[in-house]
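Why does residue order matter? Because the sequence determines the fold. Keep that principle in mind as you read this record.
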Amino acid sequence: MRLILLILTLIAPLPLQAGLLDLLPLKRIERKMLYPLSASEVDPSAIGLQRAEVHRFDQGSYELVVWTLKAQRASAPTVLYFHGNAGNLATRAQRFATMQGQGFNVIAMSYPGSSGSGGLPSEETITNDALAVYKSVGQLIDGRTSQDVILMGESLGCAVAIALLTQLDPDERPSGIILEAPFTSTPDMARAVTDVPDNLVERIQDRWENLARAGALTIPLLVIHGSVDEVTPPRMGRAIFNAAPVKDKDFLLVPNATHSGTWRSDTMPRLWRFIRAYGAN
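Structure:
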């Protein structure tokens, strides 16, 4: 399909290009490119996760699946985790187990069309889902409030976490936020990593304007980015970090790490220290 779009833009006059593009199912194409999610539902206990529960949020026209992994201590820090744009919750099981092993509670939200959740993913829908889960933290982890949690986003999940912050009043905000491989916007990513022409890029509907929303980053912030990230250019993570108005912030550039290679024994202590410092009850 992308080859067809490129041919159209190369051989057709501009007015005709616009008409031809209008005939294409652009939203469906966009959804497949932005959200290559796995619909497969996996029971967390079946893949070895301990003290794990599955919750189903009634979002009106669909149910949203959320996992919780509880720490042994009731006062443990709590991480609300938003995963990247591929796979499902089960593909992050090792990450969740590692955080739980560090003594943290984990709340992990799926996306519409992923991990057994119904519905179709979109920027508006995912943001609304995140807000619903955030406001239900006390029901998911006893003794915790939304303001106690650390938000953690992975790639697309960074955009979800930032969008969630824009929906919150100052007195509703969490205690900190971690962004792993954040991107500045969907159009910027399209221009950086694909050869899709600009007139098509401008038609992207789910824009996830993270850099424009960076003013919402007024809470303690940790940005993690691999120095050789092959998906999200490190300059994007640095741009969001620089634009964040909060003074209490840290940028961790992981040497020789790829997009999915930042969780290493020499870098994870920084992550754990951040969660313990700002996620304590």
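The chain has one domain: 47-279.
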